[in-house]
Amino acid sequence: MNKIISKERVYAAVFAVLAFACLFFLAGITLVLFKEGLPLFGKIGLGDFLFGSRWYPTHEDAEYGILSLLTGSLWVTTGAMLVCLPLGIGSALYINEIAGDRQKAVLKPLVEILAGIPSIVFGFFGMVIVAPFLQKLLHLPTGLCAFTASLILGIMAVPAICSLSEDALSYVPASYREASLALGATRWETLIKVVLPAAGSGISTAAILGISRIMGETMTVLMVSGGAAIIPHSFFQPVRPLTSTIAAEMGETAVGSMHYHALFAIALVLFTLTFIFNIAAEILSRRYRIKLGLQR
Amino acid sequence: MKRVKTALNDGHDLFNGGYSVREAPPRPGANQFSRAVWNKQTAQKAGFFLLFMCILLTLLFLGSIVYFIFAGGGKVLTWGFLTQWPRNAMTEGGIFPALLGTFYLTLGAIIAALPLGLACAIYLCEYTPGNLALNAIRIGINNLAGVPSVVFGLFGLAVFVKFFGFGVSVLSGSLTLGILILPGIISASQEALIAVPNSLREASLALGATQWQTIRKIVLPQALPGILTGVILSVGRAAGETAPILFTAAAFYTRRYPDSPFSEVMALPYHIYALMTEGTHPRQQTTIAYGSALVLLILVLFISGTAVFIRQRQRSING
């Protein structure tokens, strides 16, 4: 009997170790980014790095200011959110509140399947079809610009935002809807005045996770955003977001050079930003669960 | 409650304040009450239409991507395209080595991530640690899921390629992809384990089985379809990711088959990227890229379709 108990303890311990090993990866990523990124700040200050507008890493007199890259990320992310938030949340509302059972049985899996389209395919589509089309339509000097990138990224994020908001909507207790309808409200009034406010923080969680994902998206922006490291003055100028800078330049950089460290420092900035967003989403979703009295 | 729900979904107007949406709008000059009702109904119609347009637009956009890739890649896609090597500086021939490379990378990623992810899920659901550990692991995993894919690539470059000295290789790429899909595997397995009814565990324990025996012989077999769904979805994710393998595994062109875990490989998603950005024959390369994109799209849609189908069936069995 003692043998069995000690064997059970060993199993429990093994699983515990493996579970915490998963945490080590996050710690490892943080550690590596700091270790490889920090040497840059021995050479230039944090302020010059974040707010310097000149990114010339390969020049003889190299400059590592990422303001133009940051603004590039900001523009593209903002644009993409303008596309994907209304479409994603609207679709979720339709699927969860309006569609009948039969429509739901088709739409839900369809959205889930389309969520699997890889980002490289979106990038390719943007490069071959959308960019030339927009260039001709709007008489732009180049179709590869912040606008195209926002559009493609926005559409790409819709299925994810839709699934996440749909989850949030499905947690709203049926009694809320029934009470509202029983008071004589129409389905539309119920949706706008009862269901949407009740699911508000859940949907905000979806939106924040969406921002974090769009900001971290790499291949699509690398292919369609144009890649010019300038501070953009309009949506129709090419930009070079943080992610595509890393992806485009790391391949041609000597390991251990200042440029290499600068790219890790960019990754650190990116990681910090997405980390903040993820923690915010975590806090919001916990509050949401408490508000609706859900255990999980 | 169920009846109420279906009544709503079927579009009956039972709970619409007693006024049917389908009723004809009142004539001008009708009394105030019915005008208010009419306004409400118009608002509802407009609102529902707007939401319908949202989903329609989404499906239209996504559908058009699938359509254009099929239209452009359909001409190129032949049996030879799948089984031949590239020829004439990537302007002719097939994509066989890229397919093979993607297969190796994906397989490696699953082998690396599945045991660890499953163990983590089992620990969280079956051994239910204290709140502190539970929250720490959960927040850690959620954040790992939110790390941008290119950052995984940098991590792989610094740790697997340089620090462990695996070089640009299948091994480095697989491990990097493995970490990337780990959160997905954990949460899918967790969901599958939670869905197993507690009465089964209790019955097994009451019969004198130990906890490990209960997990291995009762809980895991029950949770298998759910876990499988998660694994399949992760396969689709790993097969389509480009940024993590950019610096850890992928090569534009290799002459030989990858013969060891330490050889670099071609991979389907990277092949598309490289064809569009490198090389000297843009037009012919775009044609090949179309074909590659089509193959990748079919592959990934098929994989995620299978997973969604299994999940759907499982849900309807479970009620």
Describe this structure in words.
- The complex is a heterodimer of chains A (296) and B (319).
- With 296 residues, chain A is mainly α.
- Chain A is 74% helix and 1% strand.
- Chain A contains 12 helices and 2 strands, in the order H-H-E-E-H-H-H-H-H-H-H-H-H-H.
- Chain A has a two-stranded antiparallel ribbon with strand order 1-2.
- In chain A, strand 1 and strand 2 (63-64) form a beta hairpin.
- Chain A is globular and about 70 Å long.
- The model of chain A has no long low-confidence stretch (mean pLDDT 88).
- Chain B has 319 residues and is mainly alpha-helical.
- Helix content of chain B is 73%, strand content 1%.
- Chain B has a two-stranded antiparallel sheet with strand order 1-2.
- In chain B, strand 1 (86-87) and strand 2 form a beta hairpin.
- In chain B, helix 2 crosses helix 12, helix 4 (96-126) runs antiparallel to helix 9 and helix 9 packs antiparallel against helix 12 (282-318).
- Chain B starts with a helix and ends with a helix.
- The interface between A and B is large, with 103 and 103 residues.
